[in-house]
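quick one
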Amino acid sequence: MKVSPETAESGVENLPFSDLQQQLQVVKQQLSGLSQEKEQWLQREQDLYRYIRLKTNNMLEVIGTLPLAAEELDDDRLLSIDPIGIVTDSFHQVLDNLKQTNAELSLAKEEIQAIFNASGAGIMVVDAALRLRAYNNRGKDLFFPSVEEVVGVNFRELVCHRRQSTGECLFDKVLQDGDVAEESDFTIDDRFYHVVATPIHDLAGQIAYIILIYTDITQLKRQETALKEAELRLRAILNGTPAAITLIDPTTHRIVFANQTLADMIGGQLQEIEGHICHKFICPREEGQCPITDLGETIDKSERRLVRLDGTILPIIKTVTKIELEGQILLLESFVDISALKDEQQRRKESEERYRTLYSTMREGVAQFKMLYSADGVPSSYEFVDVNPAFEKIFSVAARQVVGRSAEDIFAVVDAVPFGLECFTRVVREQVSSEFEYEFSELNKTLRISAAPTSSGCFSALFEDITQRKKDEARIAHMAYFDALTDLPNRLLLKDRLNQMLTRAQRNNKQLALFFLDLDHFKRVNDTFGHDVGDQLLKIVADRLKNALRHCDSVCRLGGDEFVVLSDMISCQNDAVKLAEKIHATLKDPLVLRNKEIFVTTSIGIAMYPADGDDPDTLIKNADAAMYQSKDGGRDEFRFYSSNANAQALERLLLANDLRKALDHEEFYLVYQPQIDLDKGQIIGVEALLRWNHPVLGHLSPAQFIPLAEETGLILPIGRWVLLTACRQIRELQQLSGVRLRLAVNLSAKQFRDVGLVSSIRELLADIGLETDLLELEITESTLMDNIDNATRTLHSLREMGLTLAIDDFGTGYSSLSYLHHFPLQRLKVDKTFVRRLSTHPEDSAITEAIIVMAHTMGIKVVAEGIENKQELEFLVSKNCDEAQGFYFSRPLTMSQLTEKIKDNESVQAFCFFAAGDQP
Ligand SMILES: Nc1nc2c(ncn2[C@@H]2O[C@H](COP(=O)(O)O[C@H]3[C@@H](O)[C@H](n4cnc5c(=O)[nH]c(N)nc54)O[C@@H]3COP(=O)(O)O)[C@@H](O)[C@H]2O)c(=O)[nH]1
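structure w/ LFPHGCPZ:
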């Protein structure tokens, strides 16, 4: 508060004390106010000094000089000196400095611009608004060579349209990310640039400028491309090479590179190999050590193994080289698959082994020779190079004795020329194979020599010992014309000789006789004594005929027991008769074989030239027909050919034809002849007998067609039919009458030998339901004696099945009683020829009695067949014969007759005696 002085003077004299005090109080207050005001002014003064000092210092600082120091310039002096002057002085000083600096700066700027322009890279400075602020010459040439002033022009319009590469402009990226950006595929006019865009920030951290530097990297790019192409080419070459190639880092043992061939060899993809440890495939060592780096091996064309991905092993040839690539040591490994080579080697080894084995074990001798030449170049001899063991054996020499020696030292020399030289010379000269036969008389051997050229001037020869073959060939040639058993001319030679004789006979107008001989009952000899004895008999017959006949007569064997005698010393039929009688006489004496006397007779058929034929076939055929007539006439006879004989042969042929059809035409039927138990006087069985109701010839006995059926093989189907029909009919009779009759069925020799016999009978009985013990098979003794072992086996099989077995026609053959115990027989049938002669031939009754006794001692029952009268029956009963069969009891009956008889009689026994009385 401001106090006016007028107010203060007038108030003090006139005012009361209290007023004075009041006044004083006011003054005090005013004083206090003044004091405060003074304080404030002082404060202001201080503030002013501070302000002046601060501003001066600020200005000095702006100018760049040192601030005023308080200790050297107090406040009073501050007011006395001229701060403005100080500042002005300083400012001048600064300006001077600035000028100096500016001058230096513009020099530097020029230097920088020069450097800027000198740069090989194009440099652009763009502000944040994308205006071009600066550029160097290279930049101008690059983007706007023809434009003069471009500073301030929009950079996007200026540069980006020139850009061939796709993608955003680099400065956009810088603006967006605020950071340095680069690109390497910036292309202009097919040139490549590497671009670096760097942002320049202002104090506020905002992008003020972007500096773009364009470096031409076209050359680099091209080099890179060329490098890539070169690498691709190299890869293609490496992949195409048949050798596997790989690069391995020896420190890590990893496969750095592998070509396709390696992948193929390993059996995988490249990515399954590259980057993997090499031990896995390439150095299959369990311990995983690298042979090069760890074991210090040198691998140069060394044979190694490669492990394929499937675990199989591939043999390889491997080479490893250490190479340096970009400062890194690598192992360059290359290897070749040698499995084919190995296989080939193995094959060759095996082939060689085979060849060696063959060479040393073959039966043919092999020798390797080298041709030797005379001084004038003519082959003069040959030298042994090697021989095999067979050669040593054939020539009885050791290899060491011949190797290195010349031919004349070992082989015979004929007319100063070593053996075979001519042939061998041709082999070597013409390089052809050749062969010839040679008889080494000193060795007593005939050899076939096959020579073939080998290496130059050499040849090998194979020596095959054909001595035996030669003999065989001669023997075979002989066999072609001579009978192997008797050594008599065979049918072929017979025809040849007959032709010659016929020619002679025609020429000389002479007669000729052909005698066709067939031994009687020769089959029995075979059946009884076996074929050995049969063969001996044939030989003796042949010898006897040869010896008995004249030299000019020919004896031939046609086969089996058939012989032919040819004689052209015949002038009439009587001569032929004499010769026939001579033949009979020759054979009359018994032969002794196996200490047994055997009587041989022969039936002879005679055909004469020209009366009975004028060619070999006709004469043989007609003599054969005459021979059949002789057989039919009772054997041991001779017959001249007549047209009738031919008719009979034809008849046989026709009958055989009819026989073939008889089964289909159901022309066969069976009759049954009862068999009587002599002890009980009771019928105990029947024998089934076959009949043929021939459409023209009427009822035929088996004796007329069974031999024919045997010959033609028809006996098998016919025999099967007999068995089936007989079993079925007897079973039906059994069901009808309730009578259990034993059924005897005849088995022919062929049937008995049929391998399916046992099983077919088993099936047949099962089918029909006939008890096995009711079937009895009758087999002739000659059938059994044919092959005793087989017969024994078959009989046992049949017996095991439950069948009973009877030996038929006993006594007619040559059978030895001692054989009987081999066979499981239940019955023995004494042949009817013995029964017939019981009363007239005492020896036959003695034989019959002996047979009965012998059979009984062996537990075999005896059946006498062909009993026609009471005497015969009584004799047999008195000799304890067990069973009998014959017209005396009953002729063979048809099944209906048999059924009727059984039905008509109360018992089988009654029927039996009724029948016997009925048919004496
Ligand atoms: N393989 C086969 N052979 C058979 C078959 N059927 C018969 N035969 C055999 O044929 C031969 C002739 O037989 P067959 O003409 O039937 O003569 C038999 C009887 O009829 C005859 N016989 C009987 N009793 C008398 C008699 O008192 N007097 C007399 N003169 N003949 C009589 O005997 C023949 C029976 O002989 P066997 O068989 O030896 O008991 C003959 O060999 C038959 O075996 C057949 O199916 N298959």
